[in-house]
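== Sequence entry ==
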Amino acid sequence: PGRGANFNHPKFGPVWATSHLGDGGISVIGTDPVKHPQYAWKQVESLKGQGGGSLFIKTHPNSHHLYVDTTLNPDAKLSQSVAVFDINQLGKGYTVLPIAEYS
């Protein structure tokens, strides 16, 4: 899939997140060997997304949201929506934005 998303995790510091193409998994990996060596290059969190078929996972430095698509999922409802996680509360799950319904 795409290049993933980099953000500052409230517990683990700088991380990189990537979605799994074949299932709904999202891996969060620590990326700071200097200030957070105990988490560097290790999976620090595993999230459950809507399902397989994700191509893109994105965020923005000024946002506390993590967006995950499921574009290639065979279920039309999933493939036409985006899961949105709150970076400060990743464990609470996601909110679904039904993008196709908005158009």
